[in-house]
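Tip: read the tokens left to right.
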């Protein structure tokens, strides 16, 4: 950007030397501190609005799991309210591919939709992904599967963009199990099902995200598990699935079953 300054009676052209900071850590301490203060104030304002504007049972909700209330789950109406308040418009860039595939008569089972949140200038400021199995989850109803995948993708994008994953989770309907069914099945809950994963387990699960043989959809699920505070039981299940089961025999670990990564 060019400007002009007066030098005695002459107008001298000069180049604007304002610095563009791409990485916040490269900013001056004053700039960095001001940015943090501004973001904190804006976030506090957003959280105050969420508490006052979102209605439990309509915009978010919880279910009872083993007699305790689950972490609140953000529902589609709540995500739409938050996105609207922030002036963001959801777009689904790969939805057309599924529509064209269905029109062509192709069989579609697994659906992975991407949601982009655009600001008023058309820039992408948030992204999320939603997956759905048409056969297993929606009895072959493709229209329902697409809608549910789109809903999950939008909620995921909203949670990430607004930075409120510590407040809400998503897909509460996937967690819901009728209490009578639990009682009838006489489920026995172990301490491992409740306790959070150890640091060693958490690191092992996190390392899977960078493993070259782990698929992108699996990496997204691993991210979600870590965000929601993974339990010891779930961490063991994940590690056994990818690496197989081992048993400590005569002073050394002996592999008993092959894992998914062994066959890739």
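Filled-in amino acids:
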């Amino acid at each position: 950007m060019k400007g002009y300054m007066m030098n005695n009676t002459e107008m001298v052209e000069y180049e604007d030397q304002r610095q563009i900071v791409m990485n916040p850590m490269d900013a001056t301490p004053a700039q960095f501190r001001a940015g943090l203060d501004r973001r904190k104030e804006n976030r506090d304002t957003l959280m105050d609005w969420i508490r006052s504007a979102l209605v439990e049972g309509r915009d978010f909700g919880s279910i009872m799991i083993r007699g305790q209330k689950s972490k609140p789950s953000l529902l589609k109406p709540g995500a739409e309210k938050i996105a609207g308040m922030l002036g963001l418009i959801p777009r689904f860039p790969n939805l057309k591919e599924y529509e064209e595939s269905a029109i062509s008569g192709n069989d579609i089972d697994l659906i992975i939709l991407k949601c982009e949140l655009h600001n008023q200038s058309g820039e992408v400021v948030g992204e999320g992904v939603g997956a759905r199995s048409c056969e297993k989850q929606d009895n072959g109803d493709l229209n329902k599967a697409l809608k549910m995948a789109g809903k999950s993708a939008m909620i995921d994008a909203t949670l990430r963009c607004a930075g409120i994953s510590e407040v809400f989770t998503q897909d509460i309907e996937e967690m819901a199990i009728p209490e009578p069914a639990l009682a009838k099945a006489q489920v026995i809950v172990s301490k491992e099902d409740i306790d959070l994963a150890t640091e060693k387990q958490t690191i092992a699960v996190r390392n899977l995200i960078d493993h070259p043989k782990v698929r992108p959809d699996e990496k997204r699920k691993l991210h979600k598990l870590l965000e929601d505070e993974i339990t010891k039981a779930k961490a063991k299940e994940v590690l056994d699935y990818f690496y197989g089961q081992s048993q400590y025999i005569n002073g050394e670990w002996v592999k008993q079953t092959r894992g998914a990564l062994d066959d890739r």
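Residues 188-264 form one domain. The longest strand covers residues 124-133.
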